[in-house]
Write a structure and sequence with these properties.
By secondary structure, this protein is mainly α. Helix content is 73%, strand content 0%. It contains seven helices and no strands. The protein has helices at residues 13-88, 95-105, 116-123, 133-171, 178-181, 186-194, 214-254. Helix 1 (13-88) packs antiparallel against helix 2 (95-105), helix 1 (13-88) runs antiparallel to helix 7 and helix 4 (133-171) runs antiparallel to helix 7 (214-254). The longest helix has 76 residues, at 13-88. The chain starts with 12 loop residues before the first helix and ends with a helix. The mean pLDDT is 86.
Length: 257
């Protein structure tokens, strides 16, 4: 049995051109739609990251203000202790000097910043989502400043544990604050000391004070500590506050809702 296949006339150049145009338009539209979809998703991601970062910055701002208020109080005590040492020397029964040591010297605190979202933006490459160059730079600048603060705080910590902590162990009679060691809050213990009440009445407040030049050396130690904290405040913390404020302002202006 003979089979006859249908005969198709050869396609013209016009037919090929038409098919090419159809395929090209279809592919182009598909690419544009996918590109627009990706752009839309990146925009949502950018906004989500910015809002999360803004929340962290706002919370850090509150915590940092509280930290600075406490540090002002503690630095005042450091300077009061320094003044007493220079004017009156180191006396074993000086309750006022002891109070200032406990309130300002026998403690080192530092701020802790929420960096999970910031680190995610930097380390995961999400910074590319931020189309505003000024905003992206502000994010990078803040991260760099936090790194500087971290290194600076390590310097403060090193000084505290190398100088102040050994001095405290050797010369500060901690028996007077046993109530705090046993559970009384620091605030209440400080209030008791301010009223010349302690956990060890009758005992000296400072130990081994007969060492030559101990008062002068102690004053010098406190001066070095306060100097470190002052440089940290003026050279590092103030820069952080300015950069954090600028970044919060940029986020709010770029994502007003």
């Amino acid at each position: 049995m003979e089979v006859h296949h249908p005969h198709h006339p050869p396609k013209s150049l016009k037919d090929y051109a038409s098919e090419f145009i159809v395929i090209f338009v279809a592919l182009t539209l598909g690419f544009l739609v996918e590109n627009q979809r990706e752009h839309y998703i990146e925009g949502l991601r950018e906004k989500e990251l910015a809002k999360s970062l803004l929340k962290d910055l706002a919370a850090d701002s509150v915590d940092f203000k509280e930290f600075q208020e406490l540090r002002i109080i503690e630095r005042k005590s450091v300077n009061q202790a320094l003044k007493i040492l220079e004017n009156q020397g180191l006396k074993p029964t000086d309750t006022t000097l002891y109070y200032h040591f406990i309130r300002g010297v026998f403690i080192w605190r530092h701020p802790e910043f929420r960096q999970a979202n910031l680190d995610q933006i930097i380390s995961s490459g999400s910074l590319r989502y931020f189309k505003n160059d000024t905003l992206a730079k502000a994010i990078s600048d803040l991260k760099m400043q936090l790194k500087r603060i971290e290194y600076r705080q390590d310097r403060e910590k090193e000084y505290f544990y190398a100088n102040i902590q050994p001095w405290v162990v050797n010369h500060l009679n901690l028996a007077h604050v046993d109530a705090h060691r046993n559970g009384l809050s620091r605030t209440k213990m400080i209030a008791l000391l301010e009223q010349n009440q302690s956990s060890a009445p009758g005992k000296p407040y400072f130990l081994d004070t007969q060492h030559q030049n101990l008062g002068t050396q102690t004053a010098n130690m406190l001066r070095g500590s306060d100097w470190l904290m002052n440089v940290t405040e003026t050279g590092y913390y103030n820069a952080y506050k300015a950069k954090s404020y600028q970044l919060r302002k940029l986020i709010k202006s770029n994502f007003p809702d």
